[in-house]
Design goal:
By secondary structure, the chain is mainly beta. The protein contains 6 helices and 33 strands. Helices cover 7% and strands 55% of the residues. The strands form 5 sheets. The chain has a 22-stranded antiparallel beta barrel. A 5-stranded mixed sheet has the order 1-6-7-4-5, with helices on one face. A two-stranded antiparallel ribbon has the order 2-3. It is a multi-pass membrane protein. Pfam families: Plug, TonB_dep_Rec_b-barrel.
Length: 713
């Protein structure tokens, strides 16, 4: 669908809109009639996946004055979910796309990672059961988690990730592992679809008195919707628990994942128009791949004596081996048509080993009207290995070694004070101390380079939650954001003079409404979650044109940028005439206003990569027999592919169809995506100044059919 071009608003305007909304919210708070104080466990249901019971996850969300979404892992068995983009489809404020349908995805939350060197995938901290998966410097390059292995996925956007110890722009995502105590004792799931997709998952577990255990074996394969985009993945996930006392539970986790994924590379405009599903020829000849083997061990202890106190602590260890051919031979014929053959001047195959040790501690206590939570996160990462010349996906000589280290300590303290009936004041702060040590050696010259830097910050937060009615509340907050550069960004500094980049920092203001109405016979039941936010950022780490190598980009600090937006997830359940069926619409909408702020080079240009808007939804017919069916839709606005705003990628609209049936022991689903088979750009690489001949475009899914079955024993 063609989208008309738009002129970027001046940066302060989105913030003015948010401040106006805050003022209106404050007026609404003041004018609302007082009511009785609700019990702590009676606030709101989740606006993305409606929960049937109050859990600690829901209770924590209800005490957060900002956008937090909880996705129920059971919903992943009612539709095709094979990567993070599928799992977070209906989470507003988060833009996730896979270039080939595999695990390698582009992830951005509230405008994070809108960079020309998006290698790191940073800006969002990933956790598994509250323990870090992102490296100590914030790097997410090597892997994203398998969402189908999660019982719940918690998405805390922006400063709302305070209780995870995070202060970065995009917030945090936590994947909660299922256990034998909250899952069927045995189940099997199978799926197949277009482009050679197949997957299988077998789970067995059980509970015996105070002991429980669960083991899952998983395998997945796909040819991919583009040439040279095959993936093969196998995984093992296990956990075991011991309830040492009624108040104390100990749990161990282990996982092993072996993923081999081909990368198709970007296309120029002409190549895309000729065949959007072809691979870049250099990706084939250079055999571009992202192959990662991951081993992870973790342990957690949870003490909950039931008197308003709760202690949770854990340790994790993760090792990753990366094999990553990513640049084909760059050949130069120095003497033109002369007798000397072309000479290889550059190619790249990256092979590294990465080890991350992590720890966390959370202590919560309820003291009268105060609900206090304190915590600490620890992480230490070391990456060793080197860069090699790439000969068709094979190593062809070591060109340089790397020995990168990073560490981080993040502490936080937050108090949720119910200072009046229906009012909760949320105030606290996060402190971060993190270090970087980057060491590299060029084999040809023997030259060594070392960059070291320490970063520290104190990041306060203040918010308020106002209960408006049973199951409905308004919130507003003000907080500080802070994110230090990754080791890759330090290595890629545009200055190259041994100095180090500054950390990104800024303030964010947010206001919103969330809640759910209780079902009432034939009346509609609604649930909603709406947030309006604006972040003013200083020293954002982006990329600029490398003057010595036009067409390439290097990292630098940008004085001022603005990240503002609207995030909304709204759903309903209608029972016409009180019959045996329901109509359930669900819409997730995001409006983005990300821009430079009076920059000397870029003015008030839009930041690239994020669409102007993204609306995704479905309208499901659900019968009491368990049958469901309905259309799905995607409406995505235009994006810029460069900081100069000279290269525009048009928006698109897609229509799909989903149906299935659910019984007590089994579920069956089928889904068709992009029924009209419209060619569209899914992801692309960002440039400082892009041109039509730049190979940056990657096609989204064509018409695709998936089907799956889950059986519970």
């Amino acid at each position: 669908m063609p989208i008309p071009s738009r002129r970027a608003p001046r940066a302060p305007r989105p913030c003015v809109a948010v401040l106006a909304a805050l003022s209106l919210s404050a007026t609404a708070f003041a004018g609302a009639a007082p009511g009785h104080r609700p019990p702590p466990d009676a606030r709101t249901l989740d606006a993305v996946e409606v929960q049937g019971h109050r859990s600690p996850i829901d209770a924590e969300r209800a005490l957060t004055p900002g956008g937090v979404s909880i996705v129920d892992g059971d919903s992943f068995h009612q539709r095709p979910v094979t990567n993070l983009a599928d799992a977070l489809r209906y989470v507003p404020g988060v833009w996730v796309e896979s270039s080939t349908g595999g695990d390698a995805v582009f992830l951005s939350s509230r405008g994070s990672n809108l960079d020309a060197t998006g290698y790191d995938g940073n800006g969002v901290k990933l956790f598994q059961d509250g323990l870090p998966v992102s490296t100590a410097d914030g790097n997410n390059h090597n892997r994203f988690l398998d969402p189908v292995a999660a019982r719940h996925v918690v998405v805390a956007r922006g400063a709302n990730a305070l209780t995870y110890g995070a202060s970065n722009l995009g917030g945090a995502i936590d994947f909660i592992t299922p256990t034998a105590r909250n899952s069927p004792p045995a189940q099997a799931a199978f799926a197949a679809g277009s482009h050679g997709l197949w997957s299988g998952r077998l789970t067995a577990g059980g509970v015996s008195g105070d002991l429980d255990g669960m083991l899952t074996l998983e395998a997945l394969g796909r040819d991919g919707h583009r040439e040279h985009s095959r993936q093969d993945r196998a995984g093992l996930y296990a956990n075991a628990g011991w309830r040492a006392t009624p108040a104390l539970e100990l749990r161990l986790f282990a996982s092993y994942i072996d993923s081999e994924e081909e990368l198709a590379g970007g296309l120029s405009r002409a190549q895309f128009d000729a065949d959007p599903y072809q691979a870049n020829p250099s990706a084939v000849s250079g055999n571009f791949q992202l192959d990662v083997r991951t081993t992870r061990l973790a342990g957690k202890a949870q003490w909950d004596p039931g008197d308003g106190r709760r202690l949770e602590t854990g340790l994790s260890w993760e090792e990753q081996h990366l094999y990553h051919p990513i640049v084909d031979k760059v050949m130069v014929d120095f003497d033109g048509p002369g007798p000397m053959p072309p000479v290889e001047v550059f190619s790249l195959l990256k092979m590294t080993d990465q080890r991350t040790a992590g720890g966390m501690l959370r202590y919560g206590v309820r003291l009268g009207d105060h609900d206090l939570l304190a915590g600490i996160d620890l992480a230490d990462t070391r990456e060793t290995g080197g860069n090699h010349r790439n000969d068709g996906g094979r190593r062809n000589g070591l060109t340089g070694t790397i020995d990168n280290r990073s560490d981080s300590v993040e502490l936080f303290l937050v108090d949720r004070w119910r200072f009046a009936p229906d009012w909760t004041l949320v105030y606290g702060a996060q402190g971060v101390l993190t270090g970087r040590d980057v060491r590299s050696t060029d084999i040809a010259s023997g030259a060594s380079r070392q960059l070291r830097a320490d970063y520290a910050s104190f990041n306060p937060r203040l918010g308020v939650i106002r209960r408006l009615a049973p199951g409905s509340e308004a919130f507003a907050s003000l907080g500080r954001l802070y994110e230090a550069p990754t080791v890759f960004e330090l290595e890629d500094d545009a200055r190259g003079d041994g100095s180090t980049l500054d950390a990104m920092h800024g303030t964010v203001v947010e206001a919103g409404l969330r809640g759910a109405s209780a079902p009432d016979g034939a009346a509609a039941a609604w649930h909603w979650d709406v947030s309006l936010y604006c972040a003013r950022i200083r020293d954002a780490i982006l990329s600029v044109e490398d003057p010595s190598a036009p067409g390439t980009s290097l990292s630098t600090n940008i004085a001022r940028t603005v990240h503002a937006g609207l995030e909304a997830a709204v759903g309903a359940s209608f029972r016409p005439g009180g019959g045996a069926y329901r109509i359930e619409p669900l819409v997730s909408a995001t409006v983005n206003a990300f821009s430079f702020d009076d920059d000397p080079v870029y003015g008030d240009n839009d930041l690239p990569a994020a669409p102007a808007y993204a609306v995704r939804g479905e309208v499901m017919y659900r019968h009491a027999s368990g049958f469901f069916a309905g259309p799905t839709f995607d409406l995505v606005g235009a994006r810029h592919a460069d900081f100069a705003n000279r290269y525009r990628v048009g928006g698109y609209s897609l229509l799909g169809l989903r149906l299935g049936i659910e019984r007590e022991r089994w579920q069956l689903f089928a889904e068709a995506r992009n029924l009209a088979d419209r060619d569209h750009v899914g992801t692309f690489s960002v440039r400082d100044r892009a041109a039509p001949g730049d190979a940056i475009l990657q096609a989204g899914l064509p018409r695709t059919l998936h089907a799956g079955l889950r059986v519970r024993f």
